[in-house]
Structures are given as structure tokens and as C-alpha cells.
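User:
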Amino acid sequence: MAPLDEDIDDGPGRGDVVVGVDGTEASVGALRQGAQFARSMHVPLLAMCAWSPETSSAAAAEAVLGDATRRVFGDGPPAGFRAVASEGAPEVLLRRASEHARMLVIGSSERDPGLRTQDSVSIAIAKGARCPVVVFHATRRADLQPVGTGPA
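Assistant: Predicted structure:
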């Protein structure tokens, strides 16, 4: 998986659907939702996982991406799908990726399910993004089923 700088420099182009993946159920649901958006808009899908030496590693981030990809796409991701593990804070990396994206899809954990309070990372990403942002809350098991990769 290429670092974000290489990925952007190599030209993801304006218009990818970018999804933040961190291994939570909400981020797997966000990847599923992002895949549906990308498919319906006929644009590439980019999954990103941030890591930092203090809390994780590139290998761990790549494993999170691999697991989420298998859970969402089963046998194989759609054509044009890319997964990138990059060092840095998720809110900074995703905000930067939003400059080149058509849409950003993120999952949000809920501190209090009754109040539906979003976590601070998703709020920071949504506030700083340079494209539309969809915040996904996994509320049903159906949200976590594999999506088809065939023609729309």
C-alpha cells in the first residue's frame, strides 16, 4: 500500500469516494456505504487507514484495511479500488484527502447511543473537509453484509 503522498501525487484525480477505515463496525459500514456511492457515481473508491508509531504500525493498519476489505467485498474488491495505510492523525489525513475527493465517508462511534453523540475525530473531519461528508452509524446487521461488485 502506497503512502498518501504517493497516492495523491500519482493522481487519484478529483472525484474519488474516500472512506476512513479504523477497524470499527462503523468504519466497515462506512466502507460498504462508500462502495455503494462510488458504484452509483461510477468513480473510484479509496479506503484509508491512519496509523502512528505511538499506537500502531503500518502493518497493523494494512491488516485493518485487509480485514475490512474482505468483510465488505468478500471474494474481491471492485475494479479501481485502492487501500492506503498512511502515518498520521486520521483527521489530518482525511481532511487532506478530501481536497481531492468527490465525497468522504466516515464511521462514527457513539459515546452515548441514546444521545447519538459523535466522537471528536468524526466531528473534526466533518468540520475541516473540503468535500461532502457522510457520517455512517452501523445500526443494523444488514449494514455489515457484503456488497456486490458486479455492474449496477
